[in-house]
Amino acid sequence: TLRWSRKRGVNKNQNSQIISDFSIIFFYFDCKDSNKRALREALEHYWPLCGDTRDYAGSADLFSQSPLFAENRFRRRKCAARVQKKRNGLVAPPGHYVNNRDFTLTGWIRSHTNASSVCKSWQRFVDFSNGFLTDNFVVTHSSGVDKLCYPSVQQLNVFIVADIQAPKGGVWYHLAVAMDNKNNQLFLYINAEQVAFSGTLAPQAYKINQTAFNYIGISGNAFDPAAEADFAELRLYRRVLSPDEIQLDFSTPSLL
Hints:
Elements: E1 2-12, E2 18-29, H1 31-42, E3 43-47, E4 69-70, E5 80-83, E6 90-92, E7 103-111, E8 124-129, E9 137-140, E10 152-155, E11 158-161, E12 172-180, E13 185-190, E14 193-197, E15 213-216, E16 229-237, H2 243-251
Antiparallel strand pairs: 1-2, 3-16, 4-5, 5-16, 6-15, 7-12, 7-16, 8-9, 8-15, 9-10, 10-11, 12-13, 13-14
């Protein structure tokens, strides 16, 4: 975007008397604005979760049996969805969210787990499937092994886990998952830093059809707990974001 700004000044003589004034106009390109526009163009679904559960980029409005809202990381009231119990979970309609194609999923999470305590097993960020252990795409903010707060991604027979723990004790953090379908690679980021990488996957691993059961903050498995977390600014892009774009998504409060 071409923008401009004006600088005003004066010329003075040796006695500090003003003898003339002047204006200089500077023209410059705002590249960050162009990058934001590129992010907006790549959005397929966008759930800000600020007072409602609408999809502001597509037609996949979310449903909740008992929706709750909380403050987001900027202390704006009712600008984050709170999933404390299973009835607070969010459900997206059937659709092609993470099927056989490139995508990037990003969002902000704040776990309710105290800094000194452990997480529960397999607390969900998202859980898309066609039923129990069928065509699963699962992103968790806690591990199922030692109940440690390590985010993970599981899709069909592929599983990757972050190499660092996610923040606890009511701290917001940014989580991003990118799938490079062409090169069969999966990436996991925390606060715009890559923390896990799948390497090269078998080509058939990610050929998922339309998913019928699509949950945010809860699981399709009745034995898994609710997230006990707050969620904000959930974005699903139709392509793989570069590391610089992940950083831009991380630093952009809203794409409305």
